[in-house]
């Protein structure tokens, strides 16, 4: 059975989720207080409804109980976001993802029982900051407070050397999980794989190790 989704709040974030889920062929119920937003998404998602998500009865009537994954993407109205999450949790929704405005909002959402809390603006800001600091870092994904995955340009220092020559795991404590070479992606490269200057390396490790690796080898 195909998973069903509901997106509450059709701002930039919720809207983008709706478009992407629909593009992937998923069934999406989209909900917003604002009639214009609902009209905008009517053609994009399976069902678009104008309603207040803080009204428990409305959510019940709309059949939210049968939805596998609900994304609460209400922006500024923290109170509505929390109340919606609480109602969904009490309804027994299996997977609830909520967009948090700040750290306090996140703490409360975790207490209420949100399964996943996301901070799209904060996370995107971090990713872009890392890219701005170093020309070699193309992307950055935070795994935890002190672990990350980064995408770095290999550069001349590593060019022509194999992963054994570079001895990255022993020297820097991080792992090259993939190498992007033009259109190809070499997943889990062999130790004998030779690195080209134009390769893009996907590196995973503790932030301090990844930084050391980037400073010394890139
Ligand atoms: P973003 O920062 O992602 O653009 P916004 O704050 O602009 O988010 O958008 C949030 C959306 O959530 C708005 O379209 C707003 O109408 C909707 N919204 C706010 N409160 C409720 C609610 N109680 N029920 C349904 N939709 C809501």
Overview of the structural elements:
Pfam families: TrkA_C (PF02080), TrkA_N (PF02254). Residues 135-218 form the RCK C-terminal domain. GO terms for molecular function: monoatomic cation transmembrane transporter activity. With 218 residues, the protein is α/β, with parallel strands linked by helices. The protein is built from 9 helices and 11 strands. The radius of gyration is 22 Å and the shape is elongated. It binds adenosine-5'-diphosphate (ADP). Adenosine-5'-diphosphate binds next to α1 and β2.
What share of residues is helical? 25-40%
Unreliable segments of 5+ consecutive residues: none
CATH superfamily of the largest domain: NAD(P)-binding Rossmann-like Domain
Q: What CATH architecture of the largest domain do you see?
A: 3-Layer(aba) Sandwich
Pfam family, one: TrkA_N
Protein name: Ktr system potassium uptake protein C
Domain RCK N-terminal: 2-118
Domain RCK C-terminal: 135-218
């Amino acid at each position: 059975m195909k998973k069903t989704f509901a997106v509450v709040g059709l701002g930039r974030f919720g809207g983008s989720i709706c478009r992407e889920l629909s593009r992937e062929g998923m069934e999406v119920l989209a909900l917003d207080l604002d009639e214009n937003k609902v009209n905008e998404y009517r053609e994009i998602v399976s069902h678009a409804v104008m309603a207040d998500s803080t009204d428990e009865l409305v959510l019940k009537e709309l059949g939210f109980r049968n939805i596998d994954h609900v994304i609460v993407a209400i922006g500024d109205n923290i109170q509505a976001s929390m109340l919606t999450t609480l109602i969904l949790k009490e309804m027994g929704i299996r997977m609830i993802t909520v967009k948090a405005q700040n750290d306090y909002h996140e703490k409360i959402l975790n207490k209420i029982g949100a399964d996943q809390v996301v901070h799209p603006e904060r996370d995107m800001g971090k990713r872009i900051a890392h890219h701005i600091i170093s020309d070699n870092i193309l992307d950055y994904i935070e795994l935890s407070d002190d672990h990350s995955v980064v995408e770095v340009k290999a550069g001349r220092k590593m060019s022509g050397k194999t992963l054994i020559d570079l001895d990255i795991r022993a020297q820097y404590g991080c792992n090259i999980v993939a190498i992007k070479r033009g259109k190809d992606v070499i997943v889990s490269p062999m130790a004998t794989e030779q690195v080209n200057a134009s390769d893009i390396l996907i590196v995973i490790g503790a932030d301090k190790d990844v930084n050391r690796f980037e400073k010394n080898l890139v």
